[in-house]
Amino acid sequence: MKKKMKRIFLTGLAVVIPAGLTIYILFFIIDMMDDFLNILPLIVRPDKWFGFHVPGLGIIFTVILIFICGLVTTSYLGNKLIALGERIVGKIPVVRSLYQAIKRIADGLFMDRAQSFKKVVIVEYPRPGVYSIGFITGTPNGVIQDRLGPCAGVYLPHALTPTTGVFVLVPRQQLIEVQMSVEEAFTLIISAGIVTPRDAQATAT
Fold first, then answer.
1. Structural domain contains residue 32
2. I need a labelling partner for 165 at 20 to 30 A (CA). Which of 109, 159, 188, 197 fits?
3. What is the largest CA-CA distance in the chain?
4. Is residue 93 part of a domain?
5. CA-to-CA distance for 192 and 76, rounded, in angstroms?
6. Is residue 145 part of a domain?
7. pLDDT digits (tens, 9 = 90+) for 95-146
8. Which has the closest alpha carbon to 163: 181, 188, 136, 189?
9. For every residue of the chain, which 3-state class applies, written as one string?
10. Which structural domain, as residue segments, surrounds residue 184?
């Protein structure tokens, strides 16, 4: 009886924790985006019109704002304005470095999807004989390639907290590519190996 109760409790826990965390993260994102409405003048805020707060309007506002920014940027005049703004920012020492770093990361994630976080690899890290799972983030520039030879940039996330990790440069011949999706690899890393991806052959059958 005791073992049965324990199994039932653990089964419920396995259901409640993922659902609870997912709901918590969704509400956190919704609240954060709703705060974006505070940049609008008070007279045009939806809360002023309806007389009460409507959750989720921040998401709609953010999506529309991003679309408008993309539409303006792709136009000739918008492209010129962005270039002018970047030249102004480029003259501010600290802001310049921060902006350029963030812009390159954003360009790598959203404009160059063919390479970034598309391939799962295994590399020998942090010492010979010990292996870590990582993601290819891109190919270094010519200066690094001249010094190290053909290599790739690999991000190795930390277990349980994959938002933190290390970035390493690995020779191409030392990369071990695995037939695993990015989602499966992240699941394996976040769970610290407790949850393993299903075997491809077992899935096929």
1. no
2. 197
3. 73
4. no
5. 49
6. yes
7. 888 887 777 766 666 665 555 677 899 999 999 899 999 999 888 888 888 8
8. 189
9. CHHHHHHHHHHHHHHHHHHHHHHHHHHHHHHHHHHHHHHCCHHHCHHHHHCCCCCCHHHHHHHHHHHHHHHHHHCHHHHHHHHHHHHHHCCCHHHHHHHHHHHHHHHHHHHCCCCCCCCEEEEECCCCCCEEEEEEEECCCHHHHHHHCCEEEEEEECCCCCCCEEEEEEEHHHCEECCCCHHHHHHHHHCCCCCCCCCHHHHHC
10. 120-197
- Residue 87 tokens, joined: 């030249």
Question: And the tokens for 154?
Answer: 């690999």
The structure tokens listed for 186 are 């992240």
At 152, which amino acid appears? A
